[in-house]
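pasting for ref. prot 1 ->
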Amino acid sequence: MLKIGVFGVGHLGRFHLNNWKEIEGVEIIGFFDPHPENSKIAIEQYQLKPFFDCESLMDACDAVDIIAPTINHFELCEMAIKKGKHVFVEKPLANSMEEARTLVKLAKESNVKFQVGHVERFNPAFLALKTQTLNPMFIEVHRISEFNPRGTDVSVVLDLMIHDIDIILHIVKSNVSYISANGVAVLSDTPDIANVRLEFDNGCVANLTSSRISLKKMRKMRLFQKDAYIGIDFLEKKTDIIKFSQENEQFDFSFDIETNNGTKSIGVVSPTIESSNAIKMELEAFVLAIKNNIETPVSIIDGFRAMEVAHQILEKINQSQH
């Protein structure tokens, strides 16, 4: 039985608790949370044992699930690695690049499994593309949501956009060569809306817009590549693939268009989206990596790279405002 210690049982932490309860082969040993209200709920609703210092909880478990505020990530991850405990930590990996570099070094020297909570990797709309060859040359992303004071301890880039940065870095197997960015702090002390252009060594360009001051929600990514247009709706869990239809290919429907090279047939397919729980899937993948001694699906390096690009974006926004 894998013993899990949970650090942070606030809003997102309780989503994790609900899912841990459903995963076989694990036992939640207890939790640590300095907020009395969160502790009260975890004790009453989940019948969990509270620990009153981080160290004693770490000593009692095999693996930690860190859903504490970003400012606490480094201290908790460092302690866990040094104690030989496997680590699952919510994104972003750490509060600063210096902290992130130290964690990468510590993790590399240790024998622990380390996973960063980039949950959109497990979104069923994205998983529906796992059999597709993705080689986009242009990417357009809109991730917008209503204002929620709970998420404003970090900028919109580290709060929302980092999800899409991680997905894009995962898809585009190339280094970022150029970044331009602009952002505005409207209702908080850090940028609440940002627009970013990423250019890659292989010629791919990505335009990203993230806002947390909208009146509606949207989480869409569009991929344009030589042979296809792919639309992913992370919010509605829908995916569409539109491409020139080949013989023997199955499409939901197709239509003809006139081009300079004659009539072409366009096929449209909307893959079946399996109903799934992304948080549960990422936690199960973490457990599997520990039990089977395999690489975690979102490694500490993945988390570091997404954070590095996010911080470069914030630097560009800062420069554009001075």
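and prot 2 ->
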Amino acid sequence: MKSLTDTYTLQNGVEIPCIGLGTWQVPDGELAYNAVRDALSLGYRHVDTAAVYGNEASVGQAVRESGIPREEIFVTSKLWNSVRGYKETHEAFEETLKKLGLEYLDLYLIHWPNPAGFRNVWKEANAETWRAMEDLYKAGRIRAIGISNFLQHHIDALLEKAEVVPMVNQVRLCPGDAKEDLVAYCRGHGMLLEAYSPFGTGKAFEVPELQEMAAKYNKSVAQVLVRWSLQMGFLPLPKSTKAARIKENADVFDFELDEDNVAHLAGMTGACGLSSDPDTVTW
């Protein structure tokens, strides 16, 4: 990867820009609109949102008003945990498109595999939801479909009835939370790994060892972590609402981490916190 416009290729041939702007915890309105607008003006061509983020309207407005052809911008959203089922998924998808003000999605994900409200029927619920997403994909309403926060047993269950293998699994991936077994499993099924919270929701900035490594490369901690993610073969989704930070997070193509540093970062267990257990989350 040499620039923001470089892409990974999904198993169906769709190209996805190698870094995306994350928008979790960015409230709808001016803050979300400006963050997406600034990112697009700085060269980003990939924006990640979700129904539960509550900012799809502002994200979509910034995409539409950017002046950039729609086909050049990759937009992802996600189905929230309160929705499962064939008809319900169709309705939620239409609501997402309406809020975004777009005619299609580039990527649509099931946000979590085992919601609290479907704990006893999550396998059947996911199967019906996935069937709806497959039909939307086959109809050309979504260019690619995938999952988020799914572990191996969740994927095994989904694949029992799936006709289309998920193209992406978006999970928390950062130093010390590299999920080697899950990554290998997903890659064995042709899935791209997207890394949300690549900064460990900010915990990484408090780790002295990461500060020392950043100084070694004359880069920021954020730049080291985005670079690490790319060298691991992940697609990072760094979040910021400040134009200078958004620019900084993408300025990662003029250096390379030593392989021993890459491996060391992966092995710093718990340094940036660990993921929530999708089978026990309360949402």
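Strands lie at 7-9, 15-17, 21-22, 46-48, 74-79, 107-110, 145-148, 168-172, 192-196, 235-236.
Residues 7-266 form a domain with the TIM Barrel fold (CATH 3.20.20.100).
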